[in-house]
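Reviewers of the previous submission asked for a worked example of the structure-prediction workflow described in the proposal, so we include one complete record here. The input consisted solely of the amino acid sequence. No template or homolog information was supplied to the procedure at any stage.
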Amino acid sequence: MPLNIAIPRPKAEEFTKLAGISKIYDNLEEVFEDPQVDLVDALLPVQYNLDAVNLAVKHRKDICLEKPIAANLGQAGQIREDLDILISINGNFVYFKAIDTLETAIGKIGKVYSFTYRCIEPFPFSSEYHATSWRQMPQHVGGYLSDGGVHQATILSGALGQVKSINARNKQMRDLSGTDDILYSVLEMHSGVIGMLTYGGAFGNTEKRHLFPIRGDNGSVGLELGHDAPAKVTLRIGGATAAADKYTEEFIIDNENDSPVKVLEILGKALTAGDKSKIIATPEVAFHHLAVIDAAIESSSRGGQTVEVKSLI
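From that input alone, the workflow returned the following structure tokens.
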């Protein structure tokens, strides 16, 4: 991306009126050169994230980036945590309270052996998502699958740790998606846990379901993310022995962090306190989320062969 790329003036003027902003910049680097700017929220197509980070490092400005972290792993690997500036990825799933609830419940079901992660939705014809050319003709690996799939990788790895390998088959159902938009796969985690990941939002009339059951030798725990209801975690204890007590508990996740507001709140606290440890959505974490989808794309292109999920060197 040329650093002096022109910002469309009419569009900028229209936005400043809506947002109550008085200043308009003529190009990207001017934003970072402004001594009154402390942080840049780079709402750019992700193939430009690395360029924006390079400007942030050059001018010592904190920066937020859109997810996925970059267009490909080559770019993502160059976006590293900087000692002097804060780099945060705008992904609210990483701050879900349901992940903490899952982690606590998992510790009660004995040794974990398997999981089934399923996120299925009907195709949203009226979604503004399809109106942007950079999503209709994606330059980022996986396109539709990485845009939404990194959310699923966030919950999966947040609860069970990092993914080691994947065998996947993907297909494209809708031309509007720009590329493959459904994913069926088998995964192995670094912990040895095995499971299945199914993701797609391109189907015809079907129920929106987001289910994540995890099974151990002394019970199971399941997450159900509600679209019209609060998220719910169900814990079922028992089964380690024939005599083991069995019981069930349900935990309703009220006021889930399912909007960008929580990300901004945490970011504000981190900046105010000067404590970057409050930021969970670091470049290293976001790299793994993209790497899972990258491995799924590669596996599918190789007929479903096992592909190791790449890690930062």
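The first strand starts at residue 39 and ends at 42. We consider this example representative of the routine output the project will generate in years two and three.
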